[in-house]
Amino acid sequence: MLLLDIFQLHILIPWIISMLVGILVGGTPGLTATMAVALIIPITYYMDPLAGLAMILGVSFTSIFAGDIPATFLRIPGTPASAAAVLDGFEMSKKGKGSLALTIDLLCSAIGGLIGVSLLIMIAPPLAKFALRFTNFQYFWLGMFGLSMSAMLSTNSKVGGLISAVLGLLVSAVGIDITTGFPRFTFGNIELMGGIGFIPVMVGLFGISEVFKNVKNRDRLRERTIHDKISISIFETLPIIWKRKWTLLKSSFIGTCVGALPGAGADIAAWVAYGVEKKTSKKPEEFGKGSIDGVIAPTSANNAALGGTWIPALVFGVPGDSITAIVLGAMLMYGLRPGPLIFQQSPDFVKGVFAIALISQFFLIPVGLLGIKAYGRILRLPRNIIMVFVLIFSVVGSYSIRNSFFDIYIMLFFGVIGYIFENLDIPLAPMVLGIILGPMIEDNLRVGLIKTGGNYLPFLTNPISAVLVLLIIFTFFSSNVSNLFRIIFRKK
To answer: N or C, which end of the chain has less CB nearby within 10 Å?
Structure first.
């Protein structure tokens, strides 16, 4: 009976339309899944609650996947959660395997989403209870552990990775100090009072720096952006994924667990899964050079994380990320109260959400294939034309977040930084991770110290904190860390 209710036209049609919108938004650099959800919320106000949630779930899952399309073809993440996809997806595209990378990406996104939603259904209450055991002390070390992944993500130099990560932390500190109200690193510029936006920085580092590289090589501008014909064969791709099933399962589980931690989200889940996979791989030297494992890990983790974010949102009414924060507001607008009682007061609604989330993963495959082919046709245009569009969308995407021309200047500045860093062989990924995790690390450190009156000991005495500290130490100082992770996540 529930399936018949879900497949009614007043739910099915807006559901499919929202997924197509997700492909468009996610594939446009600078526009985010959160923005897509925020734009859809007003439309759902007068709709049936299940129809509204179907649109929200549909647009979030497809936009997270679609962000990998420009990341693979153009080296520009469509959404923050797609930043990790740049590392190996783009390298595969340079070798003429962009279609294969995106087909793997699509199938792993759908499978990772299925695993994440299945875990949401099965273990939501116990996992959410574990997530609520995280206080400021544990979140501080979780952020530090995520930042320590910068050493793993640096293909050539750990020192270069640390330099990049520290600069990312400095960028995240720009603006008004929320504790004291004192401006930091603003140099008297009013525009910097609100901090430096993450989207303009990311678009600049990856997008504009790529434009600079292409402009430098004028002969390359006359070539097609992608040379390989978009040829998608799901049945040929499935055996490739099957050989790496443990990578897929492991990364999906990591993504769900990270997503269940309030405030972590899909972007951090993707980086953590990529870092763990590289550290446990028998061939870590292939990562960053077109590794299939490097494609599977982040894309399965970020879609699985979307399921994880609903665990604290539904069970305790605590948003797992910015998307579920908006969703909680929408649920209140529908007259629903998230929390433990929702399972007793609105059981049909909860079952409907679970069913829609599962079915969305199956809808994702045909909608995603349509998106890959559409973008593939566009990107067969000469590179000089595509670079003009990249520049236009980068400007629009950077401006649209805060309607600020200053963000365009920020984007251009970091485009120059990204171009210089690549010439100096300093990786960009750790800087992105530093910018993402900086506020989380600083806020939880300062709130924790305020709670303890400046005493650092509680940061180390909790068992969860102690485990995270040990992982950080092993990451930086143990020469046998790879063997340790292989023992923990042994591949069969």
So the answer is: C
